[in-house]
Amino acid sequence: MSLEQSLSRSWYGSYGWTWALAPLLLLTVPVVKCKRQNYLAHRLSSSYQSALPVIIVGNITVGGTGKSPMVIALADWLKRQGYSPGIVTRGHKRSSDEVMLVSQSSSAADVGDEPLMLFRRAGCPVAVSAKRVQAIQALEQLEYVDVIISDDGLQHYAMDRDIEIVMVDAKRGLGNNMLLPVGPLREPASRLNHADYIFTIGDQPKLDILPHYYYGKLALNRLVHVKDKDRTRALTDLESRSWTVVAGIGNPARFLDSLVSYGLPHNSPSHFFSDHHHFLHSDLAALKTIIMTEKDAVKVEGFASSEDDWWYVAAELELPLELTCQLDEQIKQVIKQKK
């Protein structure tokens, strides 16, 4: 078992080994509290104020909660409303620290796996930088961008925000409700009270329902070949073929559960890697018929061949009408205030 898996098991279990780290909370709790208080007290002077509406899609827990599907769904919805959104993101484990705009010729090594996937799926400008303010400024140079979506960055208080959407895992909830390193929380659970929207993918989450809580379904629609994107398979093939599930994401169990809900046999073998894992051909060479996430596919396509029986799942998040109606009104208000 990897350290990442061991931590996750402890955080989302009843009484895991990370409770032995409780004395460290004497350090982490004041730091987290001070960071939030400083932002609220000096927001106008210390945080970058963009002239464009900034929507953050983030979380208060470590690990995957479905931010990427939400960012894609949000960008698609904004375009249908007549906006021209741009996306800012950090770009984990990329080869450069420079601010970059993702292009058709970009690789996962250059910009990161998530930025490349977001660029392809959302069909809008994506700026990558560890300093999100620089990424925002890069998008502001593009005159046609009129709304900015931040993929993660809820705790990045150097960047001011107008709307916060906090993603919570429906199955795992907030774990043991403790801050790092004892639990998975980056900020206290009470932080949810100050977000504009709380969203989970799938069922209702394991937390007290708040008035600004919404949930939607992640619909899988087809299987796509990792190398030859024109080759697709129907979802019914999940039942009829023997698949090996491969994932290098923050919450691989949720990915496996979604495949099972569409017909994948429960006993299908799986190989889980760390989040943002840099795949090598040797990782997959011994495996035959593989099903993976779209985020992992962008890292694998560089060494995959047409002969490989490797596929990824294309999925879309369905946003509830109640959420989009609220967002529509709020964005209009933000634009009016910023004029």
From TrEMBL:
SUPFAM superfamilies: P-loop containing nucleoside triphosphate hydrolases. Its EC number is 2.7.1.130. One of its GO terms (cellular component) is plasma membrane. The keyword Nucleotide-binding applies. The chain crosses the membrane at residues 12-32. It catalyses: a lipid A disaccharide + ATP = a lipid IVA + ADP + H(+). Belongs to the LpxK family. Transfers the gamma-phosphate of ATP to the 4'-position of a tetraacyldisaccharide 1-phosphate intermediate (termed DS-1-P) to form tetraacyldisaccharide 1,4'-bis-phosphate (lipid IVA). HAMAP family: LpxK (MF_00409). This is Tetraacyldisaccharide 4'-kinase. It comes from Marinomonas gallaica. The lineage of its organism: Bacteria, Pseudomonadati, Pseudomonadota, Gammaproteobacteria, Oceanospirillales.
